[in-house]
Specification:
- This protein is about 50% helix and about 10% strand.
- The strands form 2 sheets. The chain has a 5-stranded mixed beta sheet with strand order 3-2-1-4-5, sandwiched between helices.
- Helix 10 links the parallel strand 4 and strand 5.
- Helix 1 packs antiparallel against helix 2, helix 5 runs antiparallel to helix 6 and helix 12 runs antiparallel to helix 15.
């Protein structure tokens, strides 16, 4: 036994410094001499000289753990800090949307002194995977589980004359087929004395426009539709609202019939929000996450909301990528979903033949004139202004402003 121990001490240093091929030959020779089991011999030579685990008398737990050296970290704290800063600047996008945005905009991002991105950090950020970004951002994510109130009220006989369009009838629709809804800014106290946001989204591209209005009277809905139609780079062909009174009325029916071409009107089934699923997702992603659940009731707040929507809309429609579900397959108890490559709403419209070439040229020129960091800074400034206006109204509204 003593001879085996001496042979082990004599072999271990050479074994740990040797390459793989030499280790195989040394292990063969060592096993033949000592008659040790090969797995045991390999473990013995590999771990000899390391700190040993010692068990406490009172506990079976180890008091001196083995020293394990893992791989050095790839991303230093400065790189992670820049990633978190970009994530906050760009509305806390999920990693699958944030990573393509960073890759496509790195040339512009490096030019800003605010970020001070070095060439090494730029290389790390552009080669980072979405799953890695998710892990690095895990500690920075804050859960917001506030919920708003519903202002949708059923309408009478007119509703029956408007055709229903279900969630399964939105496949392969062209640009111009839009869903529409309103979001109330009541601060948790249901009342008509608060502002509303009219939100319209194109199902094909995800292009989204918002308009803040002082109440849900049709004259404000009418004005909001005219404003949003002036900004969308395609022809509005179809409107799909819920069954609320602000939409299911003769004013909207006559408005749609008076347009050239005529705008088709449909609605979703009562209580079946999935029929308007694209709009329901945008209500949270583009309104609640941006302005929260606070109560906005003054004209100055309304004006600031519209200014914020205008600036944020440039980021949302020209830069922020989104993914569309291509297929969904059930495998046992799990569902496997496959998405397309992330693209911004503008990029999706550029690739569709139904969009006018003049509009495509105008969109390209507009994006060339925009600066990501400048837009993000303006969004932050307007959000700060909203918070200041809320603080003047009362602390309760500020506490409800979960998105600011």
């Amino acid at each position: 036994m003593k001879t085996r121990q001496e042979l082990t001490k004599a072999t271990v240093k050479r074994y740990q410094k040797a390459n793989r091929q030499k280790k195989v030959a040394m292990l063969d020779e060592f096993c033949e001499t000592t008659q040790y089991n090969r797995d045991y011999a390999a473990t013995l030579l590999r771990s000899a000289g390391r700190a040993k685990r010692q068990k406490s008398r009172k506990s079976k737990a180890s008091t001196i753990p083995c020293r394990r050296t893992g791989r050095p970290p790839v991303y230093d704290q400065n790189t992670i800090r820049i990633l978190v800063l970009l994530w906050r600047m760009f509305d806390q996008l999920c990693a699958k949307r944030l990573v393509p945005l960073i890759r496509n905009s790195m040339a512009s991002l490096k030019s800003h002194e605010l970020l001070r991105i070095t060439p090494e950090q730029a290389g790390l950020l552009t080669t980072m995977s979405a799953s890695t970004a998710d892990r690095l951002l895990k500690k920075s994510r804050a859960a917001n589980k506030l919920h708003g109130l519903s202002y949708t009220r059923p309408n009478g006989g007119l509703k029956e004359s408007i055709p229903v369009r279900t969630f399964g009838e939105w496949q392969d629709c062209p640009p111009g087929d839009c869903q529409i809804d309103t979001v109330g800014h009541d601060g948790g106290m249901m009342s008509t004395d608060c502002s509303f946001t009219l939100c319209l989204t194109d199902v094909y591209s995800g292009w989204t426009e918002r308009y803040a209005m002082q109440n849900r009277a049709f004259k404000w809905v009418h004005m909001g539709l005219d404003v949003m139609r002036a900004y969308i780079p395609f022809t509005l062909r179809h409107l799909h609202p819920d069954h609320g009174n602000e939409f299911i009325n003769y004013g909207l029916v006559n408005y749609c019939k008076a347009q050239t071409p005529i705008i088709e009107l449909s609605r979703f089934r009562a209580g079946k929000k999935n029929d308007n699923c694209h709009m329901e997702q945008k209500n949270f992603d583009t309104i609640r996450k941006l302005v929260g659940y606070a109560r906005y009731s003054t004209r100055e707040m309304l004006s600031t909301l519209n200014e914020l929507y205008s600036v944020h809309g440039l980021l949302l429609n020209y830069f922020y990528p989104s993914q569309k579900l291509l297929s969904k397959t059930r495998i046992g108890s799990k569902v496997r979903k496959i998405y397309d490559h992330p693209q911004s709403p503008m990029d999706r419209l550029l690739g569709h033949p139904a969009v006018d070439e003049r509009n495509k040229l105008a969109m390209r020129a507009r994006r060339q004139s925009l600066d990501l960091i400048d837009l993000s800074s303006r969004v932050d400034a307007l959000s700060t202004k909203l918070l200041r206006l809320l603080s003047q109204e009362g602390n309760k509204d500020v506490q409800q402003a979960g998105g600011l």
